[in-house]
UniProtKB/TrEMBL annotation:
Residues 6-118 form the Acyl-CoA dehydrogenase/oxidase N-terminal domain. This is Acyl-CoA dehydrogenase family protein. It is an enzyme of class 1 (oxidoreductase). It comes from Streptomyces aureus. GO terms for molecular function: oxidoreductase activity. Keywords: FAD, Flavoprotein, Oxidoreductase. InterPro entries: Acyl-CoA_Oxase/DH_mid-dom_sf, AcylCo_DH-like_C, AcylCo_DH/oxidase_C, AcylCoA_DH/ox_N, AcylCoA_DH/ox_N_sf, AcylCoA_DH/oxidase_NM_dom_sf. The keyword DNA damage does not apply. Its cofactor is FAD. Its EC number is 1.-.-.-.
Amino acid sequence: MDAAFTAEQDEIRRTLHELMNKRCGPEDVKAAVATPAGYDPALWSALGGELGLPGLALPERYGGVGCGITELALACEESGGALAPSPLVATAALAAPLVLALGTEAQRAELLPRIASGALTATLAVPGEALATALGLTGDNRGDWSGGGRAGGVQARQDDRHDGGWRLYGQADQVLDGHSAGLLIVAAHAGGFARSRTLLFLVHGDAQGVVRTRRTSLDETRPRARVELRDVAAELLGSGEGGEVAAALAVMGDAAATVLAAEAVGAAERALERTVEHVRRREQFGRPIGSFQAVKHRLADVYVQVQAARSAAYYAAWAAASGSGERTGGLALAQALEALRTAASEAVQLHGGIGFTWEHDAHLYLKRATGDELLFGPVHLLRARAAESAELFTRQEATA
């Protein structure tokens, strides 16, 4: 493993760092999340149209930059430090890899260039609260999480009246950026009990029968929506092999977890930096509170935890890009979410009375840590799944 960054990777980080410092301060974030879209369209235009971030990990033949998961993770580390509200994670880490892995050549040619340019935003719609399971992060994704043929979830049936097309009905309750995405990749149950399987379908966000409602969420920088599908016409993504879908979701889930881990590391580092700046300025008993040994020890512990999380995220990115088949994204995400939660909690504590006010900037990081853990975790299940996948306890029993 070569731990050094290339000149291109350093340039990506530098460019994003400058852009975020200039156009995505705390007040910009608060203003953006209050808009109907939940993000600043001008900033997204810069990220997509000018910098090409949605297509960073897409092949050049589909309009992408031709880089990989490492470059996307580094970009998200910088956007995470600013808590930038944008559809980047949903579009580039959840939706685009599925179209690339499973889509037909016609579907790739139609969708990926528009995604790469930022003209089309997309997301993955999974029934209920099963996103982490669907991605293989907290459980086996070969089960019936999409509905299992029973009431609830999203059901799919073939429509013989329209050349064997598909119709979807049901709802997904926690769809990341689901209220604004131009394209929905919907996981639905098909086949009934005779041939039960989960398939993925392409649904345009403004299609007839689609009802989308933005939901109130703890972390407004990660807007979520309820998506109701009322007999909606849909296009099957790829060939429709259920096993192929589960495998693609697991691979994409590991890569998405790596990107999210890097993003959480960026947020944790920025929360720590803001706290250090505060304790250097805030005086008590005639001296900065940062000069007290107890405060130094607390922040040193946070620093070590953030650096450990960064190492885990970088290793996961390297493993995903190397093609070795080693999947460490879930474990890196657990480490990063724990570091972010610790850094955010210390930020609230060490800012004193003002830090406990709900409107203070420190709470933006606390909300991100809590919201991400609810959506992609929790941490103990991420670690349990990583141990299960590595057969850690099975090996220990065999040697006992």
